[in-house]
Automatic annotation (TrEMBL):
Belongs to the isocitrate and isopropylmalate dehydrogenases family. It comes from Anaerorhabdus furcosa. Gene3D superfamilies: Isopropylmalate Dehydrogenase (3.40.718.10). This is Isocitrate dehydrogenase (NAD+). The lineage of its organism: Bacteria, Bacillati, Bacillota, Erysipelotrichia, Erysipelotrichales. It comes from the Bacteria.
Amino acid sequence: MKTITLFEGDGIGPEITSSVIQILEACKLPLQFEKYDIGQTAYEKCGELIPNESIESIKRNKVALKAPVTTPIGKGFRSVNVQLRMIFDLYANVRPAKLLPNIKSRYENIDLIVFRENTEDLYIGEETVISPDEVHAIKKITRKSSERIIRSAFEYAADHHRNKVTCVHKANILKKSDGLFLEIFNQIKEEYPQIEANDLIVDNACMQLVMKPEQFDILVMPNLYGDILSDLTSGLIGGLGLLPSAQWNDEYAVFEAVHGSAPDIAGKNIANPTALLLSACMMLDYLGFQTEATQIRNAINKTLENIDQCTKDIGGKSSTTDYTQAIINNL
């Protein structure tokens, strides 16, 4: 029996978490869940965004499933997601964007993955006030972090029969920092001659993604570009409500939906659990339950064939509860 740390999150988090757990239980997997609070809910209970017991649970179980959380605004708190990345050194943020059946999109045949370096770049949050009219921010790129995210992208490509890895950068302007990232990419690609490798300046990459996204397979990039481009890729497939995500290193893994906690629709039984469910499928793959992960993905696809069974945000008429039950029926 494998124990998973579970964070139900805030806003719609508890509703979509309940949906995902019901579907996982229908697969009769040898999993059990250890539930803790983080985010707004935790802060209201104990005055901490990430209580120590929640951190210890991840350390103990090594794997966590996390619904969206709210970081209180205007109180000087750093994002809960950023804190978790720093605490556990979750250097790889992996976000697959695959077009699902019957979802309205301008495109076809989209099946790409963003590998985002997750621990440095501008996200270290180091800013210096030079004067009331001038602020400097530090962009941090290191060989260690660049090597491990780039190698992770190539290893994933090799293990999952992916054919191409694209490095996204701005080395034409940031010749030292992004230049280092690109230099390391060009070194590592030589170790994987069976995989096509190319690089694109980030503005060109954005243009290419909206003109011909089917040309991409795996994209690897520093933190800030990864944040922006992964949201862009979610727009190619129907929005953040359909985009799964994982953060991991060699010891720990956190699987999560990257969309917000949507407090405006919380408690209305209309939230779409697909992103969190697909994140849970990534978790099953990670744990070695690939057969069950595939079964759940197939059940989602089967459910989408009858759009009326889906939630309203993707054109359906069903509640969260009804959509969940339809997926279970299709299992």
